[in-house]
């Protein structure tokens, strides 16, 4: 089965309501916000980091900016025309990826013309660049420490109950909960589930209830999402597919953090999310403020590959934008911040990936 058919099959079998024939309509946004402008600047910075990281290497491949890079935002002169044109583009060819990867020999040939469909279809890979305001290493360390602290607390509370007179008291009240605690191992606390009952007719029962409550709270910590994510919007899946069906180029999502970046094939995202058993474990679907409240799929970033093994922190500057009616917006711009490409990941997972 070729790439286009595989992607379409996965989308058609998705448990989510994905309309492959979606037509976008709606009123033109009339007002930008400081948060929106900062997010846009961060996204533009992330894209430049990826472009430079690839092109600074003496490869047989070249990264070319392809997606829209207009600086207009809601409220600017000409924004309505820009937005209307963007909707037409989405409804016609789909969502253009931010970056296309070409063989250098073709890029340097006289036949290279980025506005030509024939040229676009000769790309060896397409990258959709997403940005995230986290330091991935620090986040992972924090979550590991949080989980270990919760497990330590679970072990302590279990022992304080089971290895004391409270154990016999619990057994008399709920033998099933006692057995759950008695057989619990360090790596199984996250699987414990019991209904919390409050007993208060004696001091020992009050103490037992309090310890069970604390145990339950620590188990809840182990159930919380503990991974950073690659974040395609649910709405975008059909629009990305529309572009793939037209050009047949393999598509990847590349998530840029402030210290590293991960890449994952679009097809892998569809494979992970097409299995309902993976929801809550390997991905979630949430309404994301950063994505204008749209439903966003959040896939565990560790299903991807670390393509930028390090990113130098960019310089941040405060900038002001004056709107036509005198309102001032203050936002952050980003400059610098070199990315260090893992050449093997780029060649094996992107250029030669699925």
How would you describe this structure to a colleague?
- The protein has 354 residues and is an alpha+beta fold.
- It folds into 2 domains: 3-134 and 229-351, no CATH class; 138-223, no CATH class.
- 43% of the residues lie in helices and 19% in strands.
- The protein contains 12 helices and 12 strands.
- It has helices at residues 3-12, 34-55, 79-92, 104-107, 117-120, 136-162, 165-173, 175-183, 203-223, 234-247, 266-273, 343-351, and strands at 61-65, 99-103, 125-131, 229-230, 251-256, 261-265, 283-288, 294-300, 305-311, 315-322, 328-335, 339-341.
- Strands 1-2-3-5-6-9-12 form a 7-stranded mixed beta sheet. Strands 4-8-7 form a 3-stranded antiparallel beta sheet, with helices on one face.
- β10 and β11 (328-335) form a beta hairpin.
- α1 (3-12) packs antiparallel against α10, α1 (3-12) packs parallel to α11 (266-273) and α6 packs antiparallel against α9.
- The longest helix is centred in the middle third of the chain and has 27 residues, at 136-162.
- The model has no long low-confidence stretch (mean pLDDT 92).
The overall strand count is: 12
Helix content: 40-55%
H/I helix tally:
12
Low-confidence stretches: none
Most strands sheet = 7 strands, mixed
Radius of gyration: 25 Å
| Overall structural domain count | 2
